[in-house]
Amino acid sequence: MKNIIFTIISFIIIGFLFACDFESNTNQRTEAFEEERQSREPKRLKEGEIMTAALEWGEEIADSAQVQLIKTLQKAIQENGVDGAVDFCHEEALPITNRVSENFGVEIRRVSHKNRNPSNVAREGKEQEVLDAYLYMTENNEDPQSNVQKMDDQYVLFTRPIKLAAPLCLQCHGSEKDIQEATLLAITEKYPDDKAVGFELGEFRGMWSIKMDKKEVIKSRL
Ligand code: HEC
Questions:
Q1: pLDDT for the residue numbered 45
Q2: Is the CB of 131 within 6 Å of ligand 1?
Q3: What distance in Å separates the CA atoms of residue 110 and residue 18, rounded to the nearest whole number?
Q4: Rg (CA), the chain
Q5: Which one, of 64, 50, 79, lies nearest residue 149 by Cα?
Q6: What is the pTM of this model?
Q7: For 6-58, what is each residue's pLDDT tens digit?
Q8: Which end of the chain is less congested by CB atoms within 10 angstroms, N or C?
């Protein structure tokens, strides 16, 4: 609980960081010192600028990964039916996000409080904290938004909520009346510990979680 509140507060603080950007600090530096500093570290961005850049870049990466997944899903359903597409997702979902990760030089995951693939459990630390914060907001009828958190000196974590936005999703994640028997069979066979059923349309399903090296964030904006 303490962690959730802390994470929500840090969402708010990050908003302030974007706004003020440590301007007052910068003004106190002498010009000569500033010039010298810039010549030593030409690509150094301020913390707030890195967070803003990470937010923009994260949206681009998540869009790209999402398009890849949905294209593949639709094709698999057309060719093999919904139950056949379960096998396809089982084989392809993680390799697809891994390929997009390699392209961008980041680590992309989809994590959920009610996960299907056991690999998609949130990791202890920032990832779990943000997921808890998103769930807390959802339970309190707030609409959670994309976010960036500092993980340590080297990494930041971009997150974006995933909603069960399309009726199509219900065919594999909805309640009993939405899922055909053959599909349910395919799901239980591949995922004996499946928790990803019983969702309603529009419900919070989980989140994109993208771990970025700050250096890569800076490079992405050059
Ligand atoms: C054909 C069945 C099918 C449909 C339709 C489907 N999914 Fe899934 N979904 C799966 C399977 C299978 C997995 C596990 C993939 C894996 O093994 O990595 C999964 C995993 C996920 C995950 C990752 C977290 C977890 O539980 O492992 C999310 C998030 C998700 N689906 C959201 C959606 C959304 C949103 C839609 C609608 C756009 C959707 N799914 C439509 C079958 C489906």
A1: 77
A2: no
A3: 26
A4: 20
A5: 50
A6: 0.85
A7: 666 566 555 444 443 433 444 555 676 666 555 555 457 788 999 999 999 99
A8: C
